[in-house]
TrEMBL record:
This is Carbamoyl-phosphate synthase L chain ATP-binding protein. PANTHER family: CARBOXYLASE:PYRUVATE/ACETYL-COA/PROPIONYL-COA CARBOXYLASE, METHYLCROTONOYL-COA CARBOXYLASE SUBUNIT ALPHA, MITOCHONDRIAL-RELATED. Residues 4-451 form the Biotin carboxylation domain. GO terms for molecular function: ATP binding; ligase activity; metal ion binding.
Length: 485
């Protein structure tokens, strides 16, 4: 059944909220932003057609306050709620509450969100769809369970402990030896309970020198499921992605077709609708890939898939939510260029400590083949309560090298952020590293090369510029007019 969406409340802030507003504006759909008291002057609040305060600064009192957000949607007369990514985006209870309130949930069904949020349940679907998964053991209740599995399956260390209800790199602990098991086990259970309210763990074989490949899928309510090809998300720090690219430099055409259609097969088995991503670990030693998880939401890095395919994924989510058939066939999805995305976080590039304060100067990269998805403006305050992501910088090119060259210009020459620290120097060092340019890296690239990357930092500041001017004035004063003057 088709229905018209004319007013969307966006249950998010910053970069994701602004991104969703862009598509809504293109479609002449009214938008309502929600904000906390700390975000009353935030960029997403300024851009929305209207905004409603939903609580105090701490997320539990505002952006995670389900009752207040739904109350706000009903108050302003919204038809639908889009959750973006993070916060309540993969909360099945919230999705149900939205639907029970008579509003349209722009995303997959609550049942699918709940099933895929449980890694053990997700693995069962993968097995039914004949999708290979990483060798491991589910529902770990004790250290003895892990030791028994290691002995019976002849598993070598390292292994990985993961929160069964986890995601986003939380509740994941790498274990290098049997001696480390007790501490790692308690750490993983503690992190899982704090982050997800459930300390159920699973243990998996750790695949060294692996690559992280994910496939973007979109499905409508009429049984049509297609893929929009893959992204490489291997460059990570503390299991958090930092630079992504599409397509993947790891895969040849045969592997690409196999992994993409494997993702489609799994999503059909699940009964998926809307936009979603199937994540895989790729073992470069064996050229085999293993199912990791399904992300039941819009991904941070969806923009590079849009750049290489020309499709609007947020727009497709709106189509599905309205009950329409997907407007594109699988045979019509073509990849015609390469794209990179760098996540600009407000963090110290040396130690990754969060950086708070006011942005005193902001100069954005411009020019051909550059796409900026920003969540801040010059003069904006960066509060200490939320995710440190302030901007996504994307570049495209006919080839991978061309996209890298454009990213080099965007980060190294055009971008200026003052008043807070960002990881821009680290991002620039990574894309200039010979191994990255050659496409030779793994999920441990940053930790293995951190000292080398730090040595490549070239930080500029207002003080540097002032010093240059002072030296110039002193030189002219001491030596008189120069020949070129």
């Amino acid at each position: 059944m088709e229905r018209k969406i004319s007013h969307v409340l966006i249950a998010n802030r910053g970069v994701p909220a602004v991104r969703i507003m862009d598509t809504c504006r293109d479609r002449r759909i009214k938008t309502t932003a929600v904000y906390s008291t700390a975000d009353r002057l935030a960029y997403h609040v300024r851009l929305a057609d209207q905004a409603v305060c939903v609580g105090e600064a701490p997320p539990l009192e505002s952006y995670l306050n389900m009752e207040n957000i739904i109350k706000a949607a009903l108050q302003v007369g919204a038809d639908a709620i889009h959750p973006g990514w993070g916060f309540l985006a993969e909360n099945a209870d919230f999705a149900e509450m939205v639907q029970d309130a008579g509003l349209v949930w722009i995303g997959p069904s609550p049942e699918v969100i709940r099933a895929m949020g449980d890694k053990v349940e997700a693995k069962k679907y993968a097995r039914r769809a004949n999708v290979p998964s990483i060798p491991g053991i589910d529902n770990v209740s004790s250290i003895e369970d892990i030791k028994k599995w290691i002995e019976e399956e002849k598993v070598d260390f390292p292994i990985m402990l993961k929160a069964a209800k986890g995601g986003g790199g939380k509740g994941m602990v790498k274990v290098e030896s049997e001696e480390e098991l007790p501490i790692a086990f308690n750490q993983a259970k503690s992190e899982a309970m704090k982050a997800f309210g459930d300390d159920t763990l699973l243990a998996e074989k750790y695949i060294s020198h692996s690559r992280h490949i994910e496939v973007q899928v979109i499905a409508d309510t009429h049984g049509k499921v297609i893929h929009l090809y893959e992204r490489e998300c291997t460059l990570q720090r503390r299991n958090q992605k930092i630079i992504e690219e599409a397509p993947s430099p790891t895969l040849d055409d045969d592997l690409r077709e196999e992994i993409c259609f494997t993702a489609v097969r799994l999503m059909r088995e699940i009964g998926y609708t809307s936009a979603g991503t199937v994540e895989f670990i790729f073992d470069t030693n064996t050229n085999k890939f293993y199912f990791l998880e399904v992300n039941t939401r819009l991904q941070v890095e969806h923009g590079i898939t849009e750049l290489i395919t020309g499709l609007d994924i947020v727009g497709l989510m709106l189509d599905v939510a309205e009950g329409k058939k997907l407007p594109v066939k699988q045979s019509e999805v073509k990849v015609n260029r390469w794209a990179l995305e760098a996540r600009l976080n407000a963090e110290d590039p040396f130690n990754f400590n969060p950086s708070f304060g006011t942005i005193t100067r902001l100069q954005l990269p411009q020019g051909p083949a550059v796409r900026i998805s920003q969540g801040v403006y010059e003069g904006a305050d960066i509060p200490p309560y939320y995710d440190s992501l302030i901007m996504l910088i994307m570049t495209a090119g006919q080839t991978r090298e061309a996209a890298i060259m454009t990213m080099d210009r965007a980060l190294g020459r055009d971008l200026r952020v003052e008043g807070i620290k960002t990881i821009a120097p680290l991002l620039l060092a990574i894309i200039r590293h010979p191994s990255f340019r050659a496409g030779k890296f793994s999920t441990t690239f940053i930790e293995e090369h951190m000292n080398e990357l730090v040595s490549m930092f070239k930080e500029k500041s207002t003080e540097d510029e002032v010093l240059k001017i002072a030296k110039f004035v002193a030189r002219v004063s001491a030596l008189g007019p120069q020949p070129w003057m």
